[in-house]
Amino acid sequence: KILILDFGSQYTQLIARRVREQQVYCELHPNDVSADFIREFNPQGIILSGGPNSVYEEETPRAPQVVFDLGVPVLGICYGMQTMAAQLGGKVENAHKREFGYAEVRARGHSKLLDGIQDSVNAEGHGLLDVWMSHGDKVTELPTGFKVIAANDATPIAGMGDDARRFYGVQFHPEVTHTVRGRDLFVRFVRDICGCRGDWNMPDYVTEAIEKVRAQVGKDEVILGLSGGVDSSVVAALLHKAIGDQLTCVFVDNGLLRLNEAEQVMQTFARNLGVKVIHVDASAQFMGHLAGVTDPEQKRRIIGREFVEVFQAEAQKLPKARWLAQGTIYPDVIESAGAKTKKAHTIKSHHNVGGLPETLNLKLCEPLRELFKDEVRELGIALGLPHEMVYRHPFPGPGLGVRILGEVKQEYADLLRRADAIFIDELRAADWYEKTSQAFAVFLPVKSVGVMGDGRTYDYVVALRAVETQDFMTARWAQLPYELLGRVANRIVNEVRGINRVTYDITGKPPGTIEWE
Ligand code: XMP
């Protein structure tokens, strides 16, 4: 197993992920954990993360000396390399010219860490590696025993290594995907140099996660807002396994869910898994407050506010609850950290269960905080959740409220639910569901003229939207086959009375957003 010491980099979790990808167990701890803890942990290797500080300033964090005394391999990344250099007798200085973004480094000499890991080879036969850099300081003198293993003009010591002690440092960030061969570097370090076997897997993670939750909440009761989405579903399954009846889920039906969604959630969790789920049908309350409201942001605010209200009322009925469980995953953690520092325009005010107020007086239990989406899915499968639930497209918190343009009406929601279900049905049948990242129907409250049989129709329009995306920040419209689109349009117009026209949205993001409101 690997110990990762965190010096405060934004990417520390990514390091953990790269190690887990090798099916090697790792734990992430602050850089100032005690020497005893490190000895007891008994790591096969240690990774020192990057961090925002400057090594040459006073009182900036250091790695505990024991890291270098244990006789295990150590990999320092960015600040981790700098502190390693400084602590072992080298020198670190301000780089004057900061290096930020893509860079190319040249492999120098041979090292167990980098040999054969390259994107291309230059005329002199040196391996060239495309890497991602982000630093203002650099190592200017090697500690004894080290040699340069990577260099470029801006950073003559971009990598250093001591094969005898198995200490390595890299100035670039192998953990980010922009460093294309970064993964190979982790394989090399974790598997080859540290000798970790790679036999850790999701079922092991389940066991560990269950123990962690038990240790965290003890005998206390926990409350969870279950939405039926992937993240909250996985939390529900995990907590149910860990603490059984100490968990109560609250499932709020706001009247803006997909067809049969409430039924499916109750089936999967309450009936199949035996989870305690309180099903609150609050659709009348939501619809009531939405009546007459057409502004998208106002609609979002109302739906968010009502959710909190309903949830709070339910929480008050459970006076013994001490914890609020949430399906926060790692990208949410980064996003909200970024949101605090960045002054971005509010395009849409997102609403999540995360917006629940502090007045609930509950402590937070967020067992997925360290995981990426694909890991959450793997965990869901390991916990026995159905494939369709775990690989479901995301669904926005305000639900159909942002897919019915303008005023939300019961009639519109009912029409949209049926049209949407047909679209999803056909996508699944044609094996296109999992090739798209998100797909849904949008209700347009305008009427157009049509002809069916010999009669004139004058009915509403539905737009279909399907996108492909990695991170939902940018997206391409999915090039669905014409026959598939044709089938969907036919079925919607034939089966959903009240809709006589179907269009397909071919706008990317940007300039469009994925949802229409
Ligand atoms: P947009 O429309 O901004 O959507 O391109 C990007 C992704 O976010 C989802 N989305 C939401 N998710 N609460 C959520 O939990 C919200 O208020 C919300 N609004 C949009 C959207 O479905 C897409 O996946």
Automatic annotation (TrEMBL):
Where, if anywhere, are coiled coils annotated? none
Which NCBIfam families does UniProt cross-reference here? Answer: guaA_Cterm, guaA_Nterm, PRK00074.1
The cross-references to InterPro entries, in alphabetical order and at most eight, read: Class_I_gatase-like, GATASE, GMP_synth_C, GMP_synth_GATase, GMP_synthase, GMPS_ATP_PPase_dom, NAD/GMP_synthase, Rossmann-like_a/b/a_fold
Q: Name one GO cellular component term.
A: cytosol
Domain of life, source organism: Bacteria
Q: Could you state a single Gene Ontology molecular function term?
A: ATP binding
Query: Which parts of the sequence belong to the GMPS ATP-PPase domain?
Result: 200-392
Q: Which UniProt keywords apply?
A: ATP-binding, Glutamine amidotransferase, GMP biosynthesis, Ligase, Nucleotide-binding, Purine biosynthesis
Catalyzed chemical reaction(s): XMP + L-glutamine + ATP + H2O = GMP + L-glutamate + AMP + diphosphate + 2 H(+)
Q: How is the quaternary structure described? A: Homodimer.
SUPFAM superfamilies linked to this entry:
Adenine nucleotide alpha hydrolases-like, Class I glutamine amidotransferase-like, GMP synthetase C-terminal dimerisation domain
According to its UniProt entry, this protein's organism is Sulfurisoma sediminicola
**Binding-site residues, ATP:** 227-233
Q: Does ATP-binding appear among the keywords?
A: yes
Protein's UniProt name: GMP synthase [glutamine-hydrolyzing]
Which ranges does the record mark as transmembrane? none
